[in-house]
Write a structure and sequence with these properties.
264 residues; alpha/beta; binds 3-methyl-2-oxobutanoic acid; binds sodium ion
């Protein structure tokens, strides 16, 4: 089978079909999500927290994310792989954005990039699209701007909603193929979704976007504290902790390894 493409994503909106996106940061989980039928995998700069242990996405670099994106591409067969451009790699200008995005496509095999922000980064979005790089937008709670927001909170209430709508329309006009809406009122996300012809992907944006995305460690119950919008679809953290405790116990008591684990 072939990979999911930007055309498949566009066609899904015309057919009013909702679809799921998940983050992935390594080959094993990419394979599991791919085989589960997740059509789009995002190598998020959330790797800063869930892989590298930072407390925001600000410190992570292109060099940090490139090996993760390459692993996700190698681990998957069918999914479209989107890579986040990290803070500082595209805000500074068009040449920087082109250089960073080009590295992801050439060195990892990722199929598209994602960038945070609206009208202020239009020249970068236009240049990348012109260069043949599909661009996913991201508006609302854009974590790379946490220092401007003064924390992680709902965005786009009141007049800010009209600004977000203008940014969304500008990103579509600049050629973005899809748009993440993070932590915005459901009503606004629904209005943006019906105003655009490109698909919207919600995370904390209610149920009326074209698609949904979650950080996989959040939805699988690996991260201890999660936002209101997260649903825990499994309790991997408990399963893994129990496995580690059982392993430790059996090593200490001598139950493991047993004869069947040993070579004669
Ligand atoms: O980095 C990330 O994981 C993201 C998604 C949550 C949209 O940007
Ligand atoms: Na991100």
């Amino acid at each position: 089978g072939r990979r999911v493409t930007v055309r498949d994503i566009a066609a899904a909106k015309e057919r009013h079909e909702k679809w799921p996106m998940l983050t992935a940061y390594d080959a094993l989980t990419a394979r599991i999500f791919d085989e589960a039928g997740i059509p789009v995998l995002l190598v998020g700069d959330s790797a800063a927290m869930v892989v590298y242990g930072y407390d925001s996405t600000i410190p992570v670099t292109v060099d940090d994310l490139i090996p993760l994106a390459a692993a996700v591409v190698r681990g998957s067969k069918r999914a479209m792989v989107v890579a986040d451009l990290p803070f500082g790699s595209y805000q500074t200008g068009v040449p920087e954005a082109l250089a960073a995005a080009t590295r992801f496509l050439k060195e990892t095999g990722a199929h598209a990039v994602k960038v945070e922000g609206g009208r202020r980064i239009l020249p970068q979005v236009e240049a990348m699209v012109s260069a043949g790089i599909p661009v996913m937008g991201h508006l609302g709670l854009t974590p790379q701007s946490v220092n401007v927001f003064g924390g992680y909170r709902v965005q786009g209430r009141g007049q800010a909603g009209e600004e977000l709508m203008a940014d969304a329309k500008a990103l579509e006009a600049a050629g973005a193929f899809s748009l993440v809406l993070e932590c915005v009122p459901e009503e606004l996300a629904a209005r943006v979704t019906s105003s655009l012809s490109i698909p919207t992907i919600g995370i904390g944006g209610g149920g009326r976007t074209d698609a949904q995305v979650l950080v996989w460690q959040d939805m699988a119950g690996l991260t201890p504290h999660t936002a209101k919008f997260v649903k825990k679809f499994a309790d991997i953290g408990t399963v893994l902790g129990d496995a580690a405790r059982s392993y430790a116990e059996e090593v200490v008591s001598g139950v493991y390894p047993a004869p069947e684990h040993s070579y004669k």
